[in-house]
């Protein structure tokens, strides 16, 4: 499969999934404050953004399998950069929370942070390889 | 690892995209291999050998070997 076709297939899943994720997250935050509902309903609705997020990871997995080996290497390296940064922030800040009562880090933002770092790393590496 | 892919491709008058299509890889991958920034996997190296009708050791060589 060509990289273009694999990228098209990736965005076919990514775009609707990210919209559902954003709508689900924003909607749940709003609903929690404005719509009276039992806690178990809220927990149940929280599955929506979780499934969207898993769909994105699955699409990315498929994308990495469909592109050629060199492009896959860039994706794997970018994923590693993202994971290292997020783990460092989460673990480092977690230690500060435990030891010096640092303000709580809203872990919700770790996923958007991961994708921003992953995208930036992909861009830098692709530029380094003279792709654009 | 060094290679003579660029020279072989030029001899046949193929662009990086054309070679990429034959090998089912991207133009960027061909570019990275030619520039020596990426060493292909054994299956891809064998495929390159088949496209050029050469043994892989005629295309790829270790600079440290004698």
Description of the molecule:
The complex is a heterodimer of chains A (132) and B (66). Chain A is mainly α and 132 residues long. Chain A is flat. Chain A contains 5 helices and no strands. With 66 residues, chain B is mainly alpha-helical. Chain B contains 5 helices and 2 strands, in the order βαααααβ. Chain B has helices at residues 5-12, 16-23, 27-34, 42-52, 56-59; strands at residues 2-3, 60-61. Chain B has a two-stranded antiparallel sheet with strand order 1-2. The mean pLDDT of chain B is 92. Chain A binds chain B through residues 1-3, 67-71, 73, 126, 129-131, and chain B through 24-26, 28-29, 31-33, 35, 37-38, 40-41, 44.
Oligomerization category of the chains in this entry: heterodimer
The number of helices of chain B is 5
What is the strand content of chain A? under 5%
Q: Which structural class do the helices and strands of chain B define?
A: mainly alpha
Provide a compact summary of the structure.
The complex is a heterodimer of chains A (132) and B (66). Chain A has 132 residues and is mainly alpha-helical. Chain A is built from five helices and no strands.
Structural topology:
The complex is a heterodimer of chains A (132) and B (66).
Chain A: H1 3-34, H2 39-45, H3 47-66, H4 69-100, H5 110-128
Helix pairs in contact in A: 1-3, 4-5
Chain B: E1 2-3, H1 5-12, H2 16-23, H3 27-34, H4 42-52, H5 56-59, E2 60-61
Antiparallel strand pairs in B: 1-2
Question: Keywords, please?
Answer:
heterodimer; A: 132 residues; mainly alpha; 5 helices; 83% helix; 0% strand; B: 66 residues; two-stranded antiparallel sheet; 6% strand
